[in-house]
């Protein structure tokens, strides 16, 4: 019960626009600097290099979502293009993750289409990849429609599927051949569309990963759960799935020891590294996921 209250509390805070605006003035306080690499790509680049040096690939997330202003959406594109430029200039092994609402999905679909197409084209010129982050269920079908349309022109774009959704397996089957990141899901969703019990979510997660791998499709396995990781490792070994077909992923600032262990064991590994001024919603969802993360954040506050 306490865990459910905590999740609901922090999930509601993540959508508070007043607090989100205030967070821009706070900087990376409240422990956020432990899980957000910096406010600009320039401030995050050394951390990306350190991760690369340790054997970890990176996907960089320029934080921000639910943009409702056209000018802000256009500025977001320019910032993302600049991010790709900086990644290329420094020669780091790092892809870019982006949310469609940051590029104007809620403002105008045509604008968003133009912007995400421009971003995919720019990334392709550098031999880089764009991963479209999945957002809440209200934008789910739109995101998949954009992905399918983009894949007709660009093979350097993939997306994320969430195992707390009832339709997770069906959508995994339909997206065979497309690179997918499988995660559990961090938004508060209705029981009509999403599992509410952790056991159901975990079971669906494993099934989705196994389904995509059986379909010979590249799979990013986004979890910090060592039991699930052990199960996936056993599955890939039993079914002779080459390690080049999948990678494990974890969030920046979490379980660094396990991240490095997987690298040392010879698995492909990618750290999801967020940066940017719009860190508040991301940080609140991390607190909502597990009560232990609140203690983690408090340690960050008082260790300055």
TrEMBL record:
<feature type="domain" description="Proline dehydrogenase">
    <location>
        <begin position="45"/>
        <end position="296"/>
    </location>
</feature>
<keyword id="KW-0274">FAD</keyword>
<dbReference type="InterPro" id="IPR002872">
    <property type="entry name" value="Proline_DH_dom"/>
</dbReference>
<feature type="binding site">
    <location>
        <position position="99"/>
    </location>
    <ligand>
        <name>substrate</name>
    </ligand>
</feature>
<feature type="binding site">
    <location>
        <position position="162"/>
    </location>
    <ligand>
        <name>FAD</name>
    </ligand>
</feature>
<keyword id="KW-0560">Oxidoreductase</keyword>
<keyword id="KW-0285">Flavoprotein</keyword>
<feature type="binding site">
    <location>
        <begin position="184"/>
        <end position="186"/>
    </location>
    <ligand>
        <name>FAD</name>
    </ligand>
</feature>
<dbReference type="GO" id="GO:0010133">
    <property type="term" value="P:L-proline catabolic process to L-glutamate"/>
</dbReference>
<dbReference type="GO" id="GO:0000166">
    <property type="term" value="F:nucleotide binding"/>
</dbReference>
<keyword id="KW-0547">Nucleotide-binding</keyword>
<protein>
    <recommendedName>
        <fullName>proline dehydrogenase</fullName>
        <ecNumber>1.5.5.2</ecNumber>
    </recommendedName>
</protein>
<feature type="binding site">
    <location>
        <position position="286"/>
    </location>
    <ligand>
        <name>substrate</name>
    </ligand>
</feature>
<feature type="binding site">
    <location>
        <position position="285"/>
    </location>
    <ligand>
        <name>substrate</name>
    </ligand>
</feature>
<comment type="pathway">
    <text>Amino-acid degradation; L-proline degradation into L-glutamate; L-glutamate from L-proline: step 1/2.</text>
</comment>
<feature type="binding site">
    <location>
        <begin position="223"/>
        <end position="224"/>
    </location>
    <ligand>
        <name>FAD</name>
    </ligand>
</feature>
<dbReference type="GO" id="GO:0004657">
    <property type="term" value="F:proline dehydrogenase activity"/>
</dbReference>
<dbReference type="Pfam" id="PF01619">
    <property type="entry name" value="Pro_dh"/>
</dbReference>
<dbReference type="InterPro" id="IPR008219">
    <property type="entry name" value="PRODH_bac_arc"/>
</dbReference>
<dbReference type="InterPro" id="IPR015659">
    <property type="entry name" value="Proline_oxidase"/>
</dbReference>
<feature type="binding site">
    <location>
        <position position="198"/>
    </location>
    <ligand>
        <name>FAD</name>
    </ligand>
</feature>
<keyword id="KW-0642">Proline metabolism</keyword>
<dbReference type="InterPro" id="IPR029041">
    <property type="entry name" value="FAD-linked_oxidoreductase-like"/>
</dbReference>
<feature type="binding site">
    <location>
        <position position="134"/>
    </location>
    <ligand>
        <name>FAD</name>
    </ligand>
</feature>
